[in-house]
Amino acid sequence: PNNWSEQLYRRYGEAFSDYVQRQVLPALRDKTDIALMKELLHRWSNHKIYVKWMDRFFTYLDRYYVKLQSVETLNNRGYSIFHQLVFEECKKDTRNALLRVINLERQGEHIDQDLVKGVIDMFIDLGLGNPNVYNTEFEEAFLPATSDYFVRQASGWLSEDSFPEYLRKAEVALHAEEQRVTNYLHRSTHPKLKHVVIQALLAQPQSQLLEKETGVVYLLDNDKREDLARMHRMFSLVDNGLNPIAQAFRQYVTDRGNKIVDERVEQAKAMASKSEALGDPSFIQTLLDLHDRFKGIVQECFSQDSLFQKSLKEAFEVFINRDIGKYSFAALMSSFCDRILKKSGERLSDDQVEVLLTKMVELFSFLSDKDLFAEIYRNQLSKRLLYETSASEDAEKSMIAKLKMKCGAQFTSKLEGMINDLSLATDLQKEFREHCDGLQEGKSSMGGIDFSATVLTTGYWPSYQVQDANLCPEMQKAIQVFHNFYNGKTQHRRLQWIHSLGQATIAAKLNNRRHDLNVNSYQAVILLLFTKNESHDLQFIQNATGLDATLTKKLLATLCISKYKVLSKTGSDAKTIEDDATFTPNDSFNCPHRKIKIPPPASEETHNKERVEEDRSIAIEAAIVRIMKMRKQLSHQQLVTEVLTQLAFFKPNPKLIKQRIEHLIEREYLERDPNQASMYRYLA
Fold it and tell me: Which residues contact 302 (CB under 8 A, 6 or more apart)?
């Protein structure tokens, strides 16, 4: 009937306090450092056993009394007595002992990790499931102590070590601290400890570190890939730690590139008297190698970090768009591709070609005058296709596909159209041949000559000068037959003959030897005037062929001044053609080859700058109208900014955009806001 629970609970507490004061405290009194830790750990394990059994004896109290009175459970009561009487007494000494031992381990000495772990577990256990004791009594002292230790280390290393060596030591230290958490600290300390170490070793001394002469530039100069990778790893842990490094990297790449370009400009000046070698691939090759190397570093050492990719891009854009004298970067790049893709160019395997083209397109993507490149490339492609000097159609298609990936379908539509044209033309030639075989007269209907025509779509190909000539009857007949055939196939297309691209093979007998001369259509027309051994003067040739004087002279020069002199001319000067010169077949002509290709006069038009300018104006106007149609009204500055973001293939001068805007206002696509001159409104 008597409920003794309350007294029993009180006596339970007194028994513990009595034992602790009689046995535990005297044992700990004069001890310090390791001895203190060992004794404390020993007493704590005993205490835990004591609590465990007492708890079991008086479970009854736990079940009823504790629940009803809402007092501490027996287990917790036992722990808190130890906390108040023992821990509060010796916590300061214990904490100092722990910090000393941990610092010893940092300096490389061997310590008893189990002992440290035991003591730290006691801090955690005394929190009764809550880490506040561990946090306030241990961590709050441990983190500042760690920080002080590493700040001291850092200043020592800074004065003694090189940049890569410093980073090596910092990395080792950081790993060691992370290991320490795993070995004997509470896992919640990990992020805090890591932050403290990074601040002390990397964030605070970063600017001093990067200024060392063994810094970023030194590592890049000597291609120290491992150290570069470590630098990226370590500073990526610091907030915004990579920004200064990326800037240094960008500056370094820019300087390297500018140096190469400067050398090139100097060379060009030195060679200005002679004609510059446009076909010289070494300059572009140097830039490809440069890009290769830095791209490799970004991949290998900076693990494709977008910040560094951006720096690399910005650096290349600086020097790839510099003015380098007579030939622009666009022209040099296009010629480099031409060299790879031509039969007479470099002898490379398919794989090598593929690799070079891939790299070339990467370099091309930094170019701001992409449209100029396209124009030059298109001219060179047309020559490769029409003169059949392209080494492989697959390589051509592959390059076009790569450009398409970079710049979109609109950019390569003409190039694709050209390739497509030629395959269609081959089919057409086949049909035409079958058509001719079906004619009764057969060959005689075509003046007895073999004849085939390549039909091209005007829009895709560069513009060629058209000059009509009086063709010989055989040629006229053949052309007529083709006209009839072609008009039978389609009603709405007009054929225009470009004789400067035509080719003819003419049999000639000179010096009692047979030769087959391969010439263009104009040259053939001139040569066919000399069927017997006659001589004609310039005026006669001009009238007979119906060509103008300058072209006639150029054509005659290829026949009597160049390498193969199949005609002889009168006149004192061997290098020029006088207006009163006369020409006869050259009977002393001597050449071992039966087949001779006589090159046509050099065509002036490599690429048409005006045309590119014109296309640009149209593109800018289209962009302005598109934007204004959507926005209805914009300020001048906003409009210019938007136009610049929309134009992918070139970067126009803001002045040019302003001109185009004025032009559109004149043509009433836009109007100025009457109250605010810099505002434009769209006129529907």
Answer: 228, 229, 232, 308
